[in-house]
């Protein structure tokens, strides 16, 4: 399973765009990139998932370069309520039976949005 | 749709006592996961079920931890006896088979004194 590396923390201000980059140098051909958000005292919540190029939903955008060795989660115009920990996961969602597909969470990136 | 439900929300026990956590996944989700999250760290997978079958329990400390998923729906995670190092948040998640994302409950915060 591809290991991921993210910054430990990031600070931002309300209304700014926040970009969090995740490195996954040994991503496999069938692996997808998935981001989760976690607030204190809650379980992680799915934000976005992608395989290549760009994916956008109502919450965020995910940019994946051609070599797929990294990805960037972009949160547009953040608010105080976006303060959370953001996790990047890499794995093959179609191989859920594989014992090696542990859907491993790293340490995540703690984003603090200031007023 | 109703989310993943876990209980209890909090549990405080003395070391060497047993404890159990319960999880009700989202209806129709065949895959169920138990994660443990220590303070300041990401969740760590303990066990994954496909229906009633535990397909990945390599991270489950089997000397004191056990889990079951009867009828492929609800699941129970048990620790006996608990140790101080077991203090953590225990998260349950579910997903449709062969599809992500994971849907998490809000967890059970266990404190072992």
Folded structure, characterized:
The complex is a heterodimer of chains A (115) and B (113). Chain A has one domain: Immunoglobulin-like (Sandwich), CATH 2.60.40. Chain A has a 5-stranded mixed β-sheet, with no helix packed on it. Chain A has a 4-stranded antiparallel β-sheet with strand order 2-7-6-5, with no helix packed on it. The model of chain A is unreliable at 96-100 (pLDDT under 50). Helix content of chain A is 0%, strand content 45%. Chain A contains no helices and 9 strands. With 115 residues, chain A is mainly β. In chain A, strand 3 and strand 4 form a beta hairpin. Chain A starts with 8 loop residues before the first strand and ends with a strand. In chain A, 35% of the residues are buried. By secondary structure, chain B is mainly beta. Chain B has one domain: Immunoglobulin-like. Helix content of chain B is 0%, strand content 49%. Chain B has no helices and 11 strands. In chain B, the strands form 2 sheets. In chain B, strands 2, 4, 5, 6, 9, 10 and 11 form a 7-stranded mixed β-sheet that branches. A 4-stranded antiparallel β-sheet of chain B has the order 1-3-8-7, with no helix packed on it. In chain B, strand 7 (65-68) and strand 8 (75-79) form a beta hairpin. At the A-B interface, strand 3 and strand 4 of A face strand 4, strand 5, strand 9 and strand 10 of B.
List the helices and strands and how they pair.
The complex is a heterodimer of chains A (115) and B (113).
Chain A: E1 9-13, E2 18-23, E3 32-38, E4 45-50, E5 53-56, E6 61-64, E7 70-75, E8 84-91, E9 109-114
Parallel strand pairs in A: 1-9
Antiparallel strand pairs in A: 2-7, 3-4, 3-8, 5-6, 6-7, 8-9
Chain B: E1 5-7, E2 10-13, E3 19-24, E4 31-37, E5 44-50, E6 53-56, E7 65-68, E8 75-79, E9 88-95, E10 103-104, E11 108-112
Parallel strand pairs in B: 2-11
Antiparallel strand pairs in B: 1-3, 3-8, 4-5, 4-9, 5-6, 7-8, 9-10, 9-11
